[in-house]
From TrEMBL:
GO terms for molecular function: catalytic activity. InterPro entries: AB_hydrolase_1 (IPR000073), AB_hydrolase_fold (IPR029058), AB_hydrolase_sf (IPR050266). GO terms for cellular component: membrane. Gene3D superfamilies: alpha/beta hydrolase (3.40.50.1820). It comes from the Bacteria. It comes from Nonomuraea pusilla. This is Pimeloyl-ACP methyl ester carboxylesterase. Residues 29-145 form the AB hydrolase-1 domain.
Amino acid sequence: MSSVFGDSGYARLPDGRRLHHVSQGEGRPVVVLESGLGASRVEWGLVMPAIAEHTRVVAYDRAGLGRSDRDPHRRDLDRIVEDLGHLLDRLGEDRYILAGHSLGGPIIRSYASAHPERVAGLVLIDQAAEDLDIYYKRGMRAVAMGAQSVMAGLATFGVKVVPGEVRRVLALFPPDMRAEALAEMTRPSEFRAARAEYAALAEGFARLRSSTGALPPVPITAISGALTPSKVEKRLRPELIASHRRLVEAQPHGRHVLAERSGHMVPQDEPDLVIAEILRLVTRPAG
């Protein structure tokens, strides 16, 4: 089955599951894009074409999302990182530049800490930060998981649920991309997969927060959204930006960038900025 987001393919995992991925362009180093919580390859529709003018770029659907098989096991951070590792093995390159948005940030950092020899650089795009208390509050988690359950139930009865922020972001996409994204994002399975990721989020973040695993000494860029469109954002945004700065300041080749026209959805609101920071690493001399 073709995809307007790139050439479709499947990576077969050791347990028989398949991860769907799309690819554009040719060349090395290969860039692999990791989406946010409950998001699939469609998140990168505005970023991939420009990257593909310089090298090969791959985005994929995590288990249960998009066109990938569901995972019967608990979707904790370790399991997600393990799946990413199998995908990278199947793609067949020695080293990759990894870029991750939101939850994608902790995922690619965890992989880089465990497999430093496979990573040539990291771009963390308004990444979730395990040192913020909000991810551990039971009330917040219950509300989020309840909302996912309600949306899955509505979708089961044919009600197409599209949150306002998602609708706003999709309006930035060309019509063919928007249509493919909506067809998948409104399925009950998408909401269930997002709920499964959220259910194990605090547990995985707690382990990551207490981890002593160091990041490899490669170029690492953290991009932070600067806008605060909601009351929650106004309270959390300064803490999140501070966390991003602390992380890169502790790295030998760290770089912090503010996305002045974006809140959390930087890959859609400022795709050119994301593209520029990824290409900085693609065109950087080796060594």
